[in-house]
Amino acid sequence: MPIDNRVISPALAQQLFRKSEMLKRKRMGTPAAIESFPRVMKTITGLWRYSEGQKYLEELIMVEGGKRRAGFPVEAQEEIMFLYQLLLDQNKILGIRGQKITANRPPGTKFTMGVK
Questions:
Q1: Is 45 within a domain?
Q2: Within 13 A of 71's CA, how many CA atoms are on the CB side?
Q3: In this structure, is residue 27 part of a structural domain?
Q4: With contact defined as beta carbons under 8 Å apart, do 43 and 34 qualify?
C-alpha cells in the first residue's frame, strides 16, 4: 500500500522534525567548546602522546613576551586547562609505571608555535 503524504500537514511535519532534531542534540549532549576550533583539536590529538603536546597546551594557556592573541572563550579555556591537567596526570601515571611519553615529534607534524 502506498504511503499517503497528505496525512500530516507540512507545518506539523516541520514542527515534528525540529522537535526530533532538538531531542537528538539533547541526547548527544552539547559539543565541547574546544571543538569549535578544529585546527587546535587536530593538533592536540596529534601531539597527545608526544612531549610536544604538553608544550603546545602550555603555549595555548600562556602568552609570553607581550604577544597579542585573541584568546579563547572562557569555556574553551577551561577545557584546555582540563586537558593540560589530564596530560600531566597521565604523564605521572606513565612515570610510576616506568614508561614515558615519546620525546620525538610525530612524523609529518608541522608544529611551529613558539618553536623555530
A1: yes
A2: 11
A3: no
A4: no
CA distance 67 to 59: 11
Q: What distance lies between CA 96 and its chain's CA centroid? A: 27
The pTM of the full predicted model, rounded to 2 decimals, is 0.61
Q: Taken in order 65, 87, 50, 71, is the CA torsion positive or negative?
A: negative
What are the tens digits of pLDDT across the range 24-75?
777 777 777 888 899 999 999 888 888 888 889 998 888 766 667 777 888 8
Question: Measured between alpha carbons, how far is 32 from 22 in angstroms, rounded to an integer?
Answer: 17
What is the rounded distance in angstroms from the CA atom of residue 6 to the CA atom of residue 115?
Answer: 64
pLDDT one-digit tens code per residue, 30-40 = 777 888 899 99
Q: Phi and psi at residue 102, in whole multiples of 5°?
A: -70, 130
Matching residue, cell 548527544: 28
The domain containing residue 53 runs over which residues? Answer: 33-96
C-alpha cell, 107: 612524523
